[in-house]
Amino acid sequence: MVVVAPTHAQRGRRRERLQERAAGHDGTSVTRRSFSGCHGDADVVAYEIQGGGHRWLPQQARSAMETVAGRAFGVSSQNIDATAVIWDFFSAHARR
After folding, report:
1. Nearest partner of 15 among 35, 44, 33, 45, judged by Cα
2. 55: closest CA among 76, 71, 24?
3. Could you tell me if residue 51 is left (phi over 0), alpha (psi between -120 and 50 degrees) or otherwise beta?
4. What is the DSSP string of the chain?
5. Which of 38, 46, 66, 79 lies 20 to 30 angstroms, CA to CA, from 93?
6. Domain boundaries in the chain?
7. Can you give the pLDDT of all 96 residues of the chain as single tens digits?
């Protein structure tokens, strides 16, 4: 979870929208919090993954190395694609 997001969002007039995704077959669930109208007219989005480990999402154990990583760092949620989420956010928010 991005801890700085709610802190940054508290500055200025913010509007919060909460969206929860259903739990998947892997035992994880995703909560998305978005804040608009933040300081500097910024948009802030934070994702919280319940039951997930500290891994890039999604990863599946297809090799011995991935199996070891899964044991060491926990479950990689299959309910969200971190690369796509980051790409979509920055594509929608051009640098000013």
Report:
1. 35
2. 76
3. left
4. --THHHHHHTSSS-EEEEEE----TTS-EEEEEEEES-GGG--EEEEEEET--SS-SS----SHHHHHHHHHH----SS--HHHHHHHHHHHS---
5. 79
6. 4-92
7. 444 445 555 555 567 777 777 667 788 888 888 888 877 778 888 888 888 888 776 766 677 877 787 788 888 888 888 899 999 988 988 776
